[in-house]
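Now for today's protein.

===
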Amino acid sequence: MSALKELSCDIDAPTLLDAVAQVPRDVRLVPGLRAVGVRYGDIVTLEEAAQRCGWELSRRREEFAGFPDPEPGVGGTEFYSWRKIAEWLARVGDDVPETPPDLLIADRALRLADALEGADVPPGTLRSLGLPTI
């Protein structure tokens, strides 16, 4: 049996960080599984892109020309390249990082939690690092 190395999921949450934070909690309900990082792909829906940049993109597309075309695909859902959308946003004057800060925060937090799993780190050291001791 091969190990599960990646899990894709859709979560309905008020913010991107809330959605990402819900996954590790839910994954831990399955014995032996835990989330150890976040993979942020380039292909997104308009809704996902809007969450990443904090803009309602349908309105922004109407204000400025040159919005990227959907990526070639099948089915009714249109998918876009996040990199192309971020480049377009930069051209129209919006400062949007290529990797959303919420995803970086979630990835680093999960990687830290994984590194601390089973590690013998004294509570005083954790407190000095600004981390909870539980």
